[in-house]
Automatic annotation (TrEMBL):
Family, similarity comment: Belongs to the flavin monoamine oxidase family.
UniProt KW keywords: Oxidoreductase
Keyword Oxidoreductase found: yes
Protein name: Monoamine oxidase
Binding site for FAD: E38, A39, V206, E400
Organism: Alkalibacterium olivapovliticus
Molecular function terms from GO: oxidoreductase activity
Amino acid sequence: MGTRENKPVDVVIVGAGLAGLSAALKVKDEGLSYVVLEATERAGGKVHTEISEDGKRFYEQGAQFVNSEMTGIVSLIKESGMELEHTDISEESIVINEKNKRVIELRESEGEKLLDNLSITSDAPLSEVLDQSIDTKWEKRMLKSYIAAETTVNSEHINAKSAGKLISRITTHENELKYQANGPLNNVIAHLEKQLDEAIHYCEPVVSVMRSGGKYEVRTENNNVYTAKAVVLAVPPTVGTRIELDNQLESHFGRALDSYLDGSVIKLTFVYADNFWSHHKVNGKEKKVFGVIYVGNEGVNVMDSSKGEDENRLTMFIGGDKAKDLVNVPPQVRENFALDRLTEVFGDTAEEYKDVEESIWVDSPYYGGGYGAMVHTDGNSDAELVLGKPFEQVVFASTELAPKFPYFMEGAIRSGRQSSERLINDLKR
């Protein structure tokens, strides 16, 4: 098959997730010509909704939760014709350990204080920092499990200094899980796609970005070549490593890209007729359980994902190494694993579910895994600064690089906007 040249543009945006779509809108608003190249048959990346055959029930396969401080995604939810609904959480809701039903006060733990301490300077594994700083064995195990579930990477693989910097970029004063959209988040993606006209080219996996004659040639697996003055690589860093870069770009961005380790998560949502976890006995008293951290199964947690008048739902997140262990077993084995964990806490009632939906984000060649990639122990703790700053009219954008709310939808939006603004400023010089 011969090479097919396309009409030159000012900017090529690689990736049509929230970061790429947001970057494209900024470029469009500046009156520049552009094209968006998406490797798969759909836009949205890790924002994807599965709708039941009868259309009465939908599940967010990936990103799901927001709060009012996440102004970018909240605006898009409302612009796409939806409203926010409260997640079923209150001041009285508690998080417990699975074995002894012990109430977990994360913000009062020594580990949480440690993670909030932004003076962490060691590139050692985060697990080592926790081991050296926390005396209680149970608290160490609890926090490691919490971290593996929240970041979808086990703490032994995470660069401690980078983790401290990451926490400093999550500055919200409101629960990150406070709201959900009252409709499918696919609506947000469709709203963005509509604004970008015919500029998105689907099923165009990019294989190389090369400099030629003062411009860039972006080549896809289909042997299509797109020529541009500038390029926004709106893909997770781990996906970026699979794209061949011009020697000068590789020299500049290579180590930063190689600094990341993909997260891994399996998400199972169970639908119930009754929210039995709202009347759960803890130490002889009836309590509303919002979440469970499984200290004995590192990387596993459960949360109440019910909202408004919707059905009662519990969502289990299996993150990090545990997700990698379970990804290759039959679906029924994963479901049984999840049900065993739920019955361990709530009894046989947990087996009386109406429906269950599973989504897997492990080792995706185009979306990455988990909620995002984390800087590993041999990586550059400043990698996000390198990738998010334009070099020779090329810049990266992804939720990992966000100035605020990294690893959330809001982070992807802000990273896409910021990276494209910086690139546009470079082009104007």
